[in-house]
Each structure stands twice: as structure tokens, then as C-alpha cells.
User: Fold these one by one.
Assistant:
Number 1:
Amino acid sequence: MRCPFCRHSDCKVIDSREVEEGTATRRRRACAACGKRFTTVEEAVLAVVKRSGVTEPFSRDKVVSGVRRACQGRSVDEDALQQLAHRVEEAVRAGGTAEIPSNEVGLAILGPLKELDEVAYLRFASVYRSFTSIEDFEREIADLRVAAAGEAADPRDRADRRETSPSG
Ligand SMILES: [Zn+2]
């Protein structure tokens, strides 16, 4: 780290502490040449690589605002949004790479969002997967139906009830 005053490259660390809940380290340094002191902050950054090639730090707030847009008019509260963003961040961090393509962040959002609100999920997926036709929606909705049927405790039970009611 070069001294900001004289550009000398030999600076010694005189104090070091964790800030921002341990995600960053602040170091107090003294220049060996001019003796002046300055502070550096080192932050471990998860970078998101956009399709254009531009990178930016991963931001939980950005996840929240993107999902909030998809949740407009739905009964999804702020708490749920924050929880979802937290899950997305965990998933992204667990990926083990420091540079994540933005579409992988999108992928990490889709799973938890599907559980949270199916309409918001469809909206988000339509943008993220660039749906171009009604068929795209139909396919996605069909998948949602299949998933919902799979989750029901006993789907056959429901079918039986529907069939037996007229005769009974
Ligand atoms: Zn200096």
C-alpha cells in the first residue's frame, strides 16, 4: 500500500480492526518515509458480473428492490423480502467464487421467490428468462401446477372427493 502523501511503498500497520460486522478490516498505517498516518479499509467483495461485462459488488439491497418490484400488489411484507435476500446471499456465497455472473444471482432468487409468492415468481421469471410469448407463461404455470400437486399431502384424495360428490 503506497503512502497517499509521498507515494512511498513501505508503510507499516499500526492498528487493525474489523468493521462492518467482520466483512471489512480497517487498518491504521504509518508511512516509513514521511511518517504520516492514513487509514485503509479492506473489504472482501463478492462481485457480480453483468452481461455487459461490468462488475459491481453484490448488494442485498439490489436483490430486495428487484424482488420488491415483482411483488407489487402482493401480500409480501418487508421481512419476507429481507429473508429472501438473505437466502440469496447465502447461496451466492456458498458458490465459492468471488465473481458471480448476474444470471446466477437471478437463478438464486427464483427458488426462494417461488416458495414466497407464485405470481411474483412468474413476474420475475418472465423478465429474468425473457419470456416472449404466452406459451412461455403457460409452460411455467404448468411447472408450478406440477410442483404444487407434488407438494399436496395426498393429491389422489382430492380427486376422489371431486368424483364421488355427484353420486353421493
Ligand atoms: Zn509518506
Number 2:
Amino acid sequence: MADGKPSPKHIILTSHPGKRVKKAGTVNWAAPSSQERGPIIGTVTEPADRNVIGSHAGSYGVYRALAVAAGDLAPAWKPDLTNTEPAEPIGPFPQWSEPGRIVSLDPWGHMVAQVFSADLKAGRDIRPTIAVTKAHINMPELKDAIRAGRLTPDGTILNANGDIRVTKAAIDPVWYLPGLAERFGITEQALRRALFEQTGGMYPELVTRSDLKIFLPPVGGVSIYIMGDPAALADSKRQVACRVHDECNGSDVFGSDICTCRPYLAHGIEVCVATAQVGGAGVIVYNRKEGRALGEVTKFLVYNARKRQPGGDSARAYFERTECVAGVQDMRFQELMPDALHWLGIRHIDKLVSMSNMKHEQIVSQGITVGERMSIPDELIPPDAHVEMEAKKAAGYFTEAPVAADLAAVKGRDLKE
Ligand SMILES: [Zn+2]
């Protein structure tokens, strides 16, 4: 150790655990009940119980390691789950056990304290991978919608001060590797090898422990915001509105005008509120996939490359510039996105607030029917975002609006402006 003291215990390799570690409880993915499925156990303190690769909390698992290394957190600490159960019930729904429906999250993840209470009492370290709570949210755009008469406060779903009552959920990723491989049309072996190599060999069990089928990847999860009664989402007789939104910190939080993310998100929430007000429910599925899952560093590099190219930022070269820097145009893999919709029990979306063909295609191909598709109203597009919008429309994104005839003529702002 750095301070010169000897390490308190020797290190146990999980890649080749040998006789010290007996085989953990099997996970029967997509089994019809929680008991037949069995708990997902990612504990790092009781190796005999582990039945996954990786550890809990997605990318935040690295901060937990820092807290332990800094001496702020006892390595053997276990959470006290008293009163943490969901503030609103979600499921169980038939989709949870339909083969191949859900492969990237644990549908029982929010019910751990209830359905595996006996295991918890027996001292097993089982952690929730989903939490469901309630909140009020408030955005200036929604107040604008009230002022403009597009929304009317009802005192229940939408208050006069612009507060919206929501049920919200946070989901950590839980990947069932055989299911993931099937969804991408590749072999499980190829998937495991790429995950092992591209994380710099971070998880040797990916290639040594084929008996472990579950991976808790160090990536961001999903936030769900539900307006109206969550039960309406699974009720075919009630209206469902949905926006599937991929994180864009620059626009969503800071209001950057180079893209349409925040205005589109606000528009999605507006449609969700209106749908909830007629007895249905609306849901925002917010995926932590910054900059098309290329990350914000790549995204900002692309902005510079776009704005410094000869002739300036134009809709014609929008996708090309991304590919020059990242090697691909997009890494979001909408293939996994519908899992959150299946978790909520959704079979039909009446209003899909999205122009993305990739999202629409995946939702429909995975058995969820879509009624109306809604593009962002033109008046909500910020000045510098026309480059992105026209490039997307020309590439075939869904829109009711006309597509610009000359993409080279759609120009963005210069870096110096
Ligand atoms: Zn954006």
C-alpha cells in the first residue's frame, strides 16, 4: 500500500476463484416470478454470493472505490433499506418474463426489499438497481405554455405556479449478456470479448466465467418521469404519451442553443401533462447517453470541427463531421432503449414525441405499437440549431414540416460570434 502498511488481506481474484468460492445462486433470467428468477447479487464483500460480473451503481461504483480507498467508507458496509420501497407500485407486468423483452435492466430491481426480504434477513447483500419516488418539477417553458393557453392548471397534475406532480424512477443498467448478444445479432462470445478488450481488461470474468451471464456495466442508467397515473401506461383503454430523450447536458441543463434537446424535452413534458389531464399518462424516458453516447469531450470536439470547416457550420456536413472525430455517427444503440418501456408495461404509445427513426423503429420492432408521431414545433427551434434540425430531416428523420432544399445554405454561428 502507498502508506507503507501491509494490505490487510490478500486479493482474491474473481476471474479464477478456485475452491475458495463455491458456485453462486443461478439467475434464471426472465423467469415468471421473482423467486424463480432469483436475486441479482453484485456484492464485493461476500464472493460466494456473487452471481454477476461487475459491481453495483453503474459508473458511480468507481466513486465507491474512492470512498473505500480514502477510508471514508467501510468496505463491508451494507445499506439499510428501511422505508426505501417504491413510492408508487410498478408491475409486475407480463413483459417482465416474456422471452427477449428485457435484457438491459432488472425488472425486479425496485422490489428487492420486498421480494427478497428473506434473503436480506439471512444477511445476503442484495441491492436495489431501481428506485421509484415522487416529486414536483417546474420548468419556465411549462409556465410559458400556461401563459400561452396551451396548458391549463388543474391543481392535481399541474399547479397554477407551474409545478407538475411526477412519479420518477432511476434505473441502473443490469445486462443479461446472452439477451444483449441476441438483440445485436452477434455471438455472446464476441460481445464478451469486445467488452473485455475495450475496457482495457477491466473485467476478466467476461472471458473466463461463462457461467456468469449478468454484467453490471460501468455506464449511466435511465431516469423515468411519469405524469399522471403510472398504472395508465399499461392500460390499453387509456392514452399514453412518451418522449424518449437522450441526455444533452449543454442544452438540457445550460440552455445551449446549438441543438433542440431542451426545447424538445419541454415540448415532450407538455404533451405528457396534456395526456395525463385527459385520464392517461405521459412518460419521459431520459437516457444517460451524452452526445449520442460518444461523450461530451467528443461532442465539443465535433462542435469545433463543424464551426471551423471551410465555409462554416452547415447542415450538409453535419453527420460527416461527427464521423470524422468519433469514427461513427452514433453509439446510442436504441436497441436497448425499449426495455424501460417494457418495464413500465407499455404495449401502445398514442403520442410518440420524437423525430428519430432509429427510436421509432426499435420501439415498433420490439412489439410496442405507435399511434401518432410528433415532431418539435418550428417556433421552439433555437437559432443555432437549424443546422442540426435540417441535417436530421434531410437524413430521413420524421417531420410534418418541409425539408430544406439546399442543405449547404443552412448555416450555424461562427465560433467567434
Ligand atoms: Zn443537444
